[in-house]
Design goal:
The protein has helices at 7-26, 34-38, 44-64, 75-89, 96-115, 117-126, 135-142, 150-161, 169-182, 191-198, 205-208, 220-225, 244-247, 250-260, 265-277, 281-293, 303-315, and strands at 132-134, 166-168. It is mainly alpha-helical. It folds into two domains: 7-198, no CATH class; 215-315, no CATH class. 27% of the residues are buried.
Amino acid sequence: MESKLNHQAIDAYSKAFAKKVTQSFFNEHSHINGQQILSLCEFNQINLIVLKNLFRKWKKENAKLQSPYFNYQNDEVKKAMKAFMNALSKHIHIKKEHFEPLLRESVRDTILLVFSPYDFFSKEINQRDDSRLRLADLHDLSKYIKVNDFLLDGLIRQFEKERIEVAFNDEAFAIFNDVCANTNDEPEDIQQYLATFSKVVPLNSKEVYSEIEEAEKAQINEQFQQKQPSTLGDKLGKQKHKSLKKQLTLNQRFMFVNELFEGNQQKFQQAVEQIDDFDSHDDASQFINKNYIESYDWDLESEEVQEFMELVERKFK
């Protein structure tokens, strides 16, 4: 499924957020250290991702130190390098001009983690410099991820179950997709995080997702009864299901909650459970039309609505 994230808007928001927080902090400080990073933002997930990104950059810098003229695998050298890196980690000292872009990147990553964890973890898998993902990398990442961490936990369990210590990105991504397809967990409710973000710079879900142009609407009932055109749901296969809940992928659940149910996961779950209780497509259609299309002002031309309708129709075939 393609992401509906508005990356341009996310970048603009991250820049504004980072600028405001950075200016506030550096009005009173000449630099920032590790302990100060951990208490920088009220939303602690941002602080943790700042540290995650900082240590990733730190490892890249460390790799540059390794000259071809010396044996870095020597036990004495490895011990000295470890002591050196440990000492550095205790003396984080970042000036404003270097910290602001780091915070901007971290705010952007946090928005992805909150609004589209699939995109966040896909990015984490695919950005490995050597095109390999290690079990040790996943355990390191788990130290910094506290929101929607069930996906990371599932990926770690699968690596351990298959006794995989290292996998190429393509293989790791395939495993991750299986984890997403088979999880019963739901992404966290975004409303609490929207409120926390907005304490610094106002944010709403419509800014995060790409706007879909409004098309002229005919009578809702007439449009709903028409056969819906093929959508991205086709790519998920034509297998028949007796349960709407069971055929939903993680990304679909997350998209429908935020795009069709105003971020209210409980209302979405209730809707799915009620639809699953119907014995006919006509009864389910009338229920959706009465309780959601009109109440939530669904755009019947949007991809999200069409995909949801197609899944409902497939349930009764």
